[in-house]
Amino acid sequence: MIEIKNLSKIFNTKGGTVQSLKNVSLRIEDGDIFGIIGMSGAGKSTLVRSINMLERPTSGSVEIDGVDLSQLSRKSLRKMRRKITMIFQSFNLLTQRNCLKNVCFPLELAGVKKAVAEKRAIELLDLVGLKEKAYSYPAQLSGGQQQRVAIARALASNPKVLLCDEATSALDPLTTNSILELIQKINRELKITVVVITHQMSVVEKICNKVAILEKGSVVETGSVQEIFSRPKSDAAKKLVFPNGDESASGASSDTVFLAKKPNTVRVVFNGADAAEKPLVSRLASEKGILSNIAYAQTKSVGEKAFGSMFLSYSSKEEMEQAIQFFSTIPDIIAEVI
User: Fold this and answer.
1) Distance between CA atoms of 211 and 143, rounded to whole angstroms?
2) SS3 of 310, please?
3) DSSP per residue over 179-239, as a string?
4) C-beta neighbour count of 96 within 10 angstroms
5) pTM value surpassing 0.90
6) Whether pLDDT at 154 is above 50
7) Is pLDDT above 90 for 155?
8) Is there a contact between 280 and 327 (Cβ–Cβ < 8 Å)?
9) Whole-Å CA distances, 266 to 92, 113, 139, 277, 296
10) How confident is the model at residue 302 (pLDDT cuts 50, 70, 90)?
């Protein structure tokens, strides 16, 4: 388990001091794929580099399985870092070494015998789907393949934690999906805790089970992905989850607000409802003969689940009450009168 307690980081610059992190506290459980998301300048990279003490915090602590990393000697910290490995946007492969030698590199530093290191490297290249590229050089690989090699290298020391700092930002969407699926596989099969730093909500949607929203160095919201997506509370979370306007009437257009105030209007909240079924408005019309006027809708799918909300208005109070009764029978949906 990773416990970040009241972590702050102040940089001294020519223009004065800059506080990159402000009393950040997070708890990341074993086995989580934990997303930390925020816009540029939010402090994400400083935070992830503080987890393994590549960046020394000004105050606060980072504990892994109860061990405070800031209190370790240099030797003990180097040993601990073998259990907290990292992959980056830029891959950071050694260009003069082939894939096999790149994956062997951390094992060589740890004093592992050559034959043992190479056997382990081949196993890891096979895990990431690049066994046939063992003797190829980074320049001969695509960006996605290079990132796979970087992941294999990060796994060489049998880590407990994998830190991903914008690991897919330089990749095209198709390659990004394949890398994210690989990270899910590693988390599932190797039981490795993953911390994902990203500015892309789509990455969080795809693989994370928990998320923290970082803004100007502070955590403004944290919880399960389902909680944040269904009812974001902070302005930063609303902007990330619903970039075209938040899911409340206050974030909608003036026309939408007007419609939402009309008589017989219902707010329907999707809190992880099954998105694969026939659309509910269509079901309501076909099964009950009740037509809905959609005043506002802001929903999105995470996996096969729907999150967000809609404003639906009806021609009479009786139809509105029937609609509420219909929606109330469906799991993970809340229907309420505006």
Assistant:
1) 27
2) strand
3) HHHHHHHHHHHH--EEEEEES-HHHHHHH-SEEEEEETTEEEEEEEHHHHHHS--SHHHHH
4) 9
5) no
6) yes
7) yes
8) yes
9) 53, 68, 58, 21, 11
10) low
Phi, psi of 309 (to 5 degrees): -155, 165
Give residue for tokens 């996996």. Answer: 303
Instruction: For residue 20, give Cα distances in angstroms to 37, 78, 169, 195.
Output: 15, 25, 21, 19
**Mean pLDDT, rounded, of the chain:** 87
Residues 6+ apart with CB under 8 A from 207: 33, 35, 180, 183, 184, 187, 194, 196
Instruction: Give the total residue count for the chain.
Output: 338
Predicted confidence at residue 86, as pLDDT, reads: 94
Give me the helices (H) in 71-113, please: 74-81, 99-109
Residue whose pair of structure tokens reads 């393949």 in the numeric block: 145
Q: Which residue has the higher pLDDT, 2 or 200?
A: 2
Nearest to 150 by CA among 135, 164, 171, 132: 164
